[in-house]
């Protein structure tokens, strides 16, 4: 399993926790609000779970661009990849 697949699996678990039901779609293009029925409070809860689980911070400007499950996955993956690169750079110095 790749890092991205592992991250998606974890993200799906967080979505299921927030929605209170299984997320059984393989389509990451599903809209968080209209496709999954998440309201703004649900989205805030999801963001808090994501930040806590992955130990990242998501800026408001970044979140404004997130519309779909795939958008959120890509943002988290990018944050984790950058964070890992920074960690490796600091240990090799």
Automatic annotation (TrEMBL):
SUPFAM superfamilies: ACP-like (SSF47336)
Transcription regulation in keyword set: no
InterPro entries: ACP-like_sf, PP-bd_ACP, Ppantetheine_attach_site
Keywords of the record: Phosphopantetheine, Phosphoprotein
Location of the Carrier domain: 2-80
Protein's recorded name: Acyl carrier protein
Name of encoding gene: acpP_5
């Amino acid at each position: 399993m790749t890092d991205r697949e592992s991250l998606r699996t974890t993200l799906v678990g967080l979505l299921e926790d927030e929605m209170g039901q299984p997320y059984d779609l393989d389509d990451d293009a599903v809209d968080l609000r209209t496709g999954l029925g998440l309201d703004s409070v649900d989205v805030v809860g999801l963001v808090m779970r994501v930040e806590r689980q992955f130990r990242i911070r998501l800026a408001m400007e970044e979140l404004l661009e997130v519309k779909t499950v795939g958008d959120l996955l890509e943002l988290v993956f990018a944050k984790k990849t950058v964070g890992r690169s920074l960690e490796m750079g600091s240990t090799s110095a």
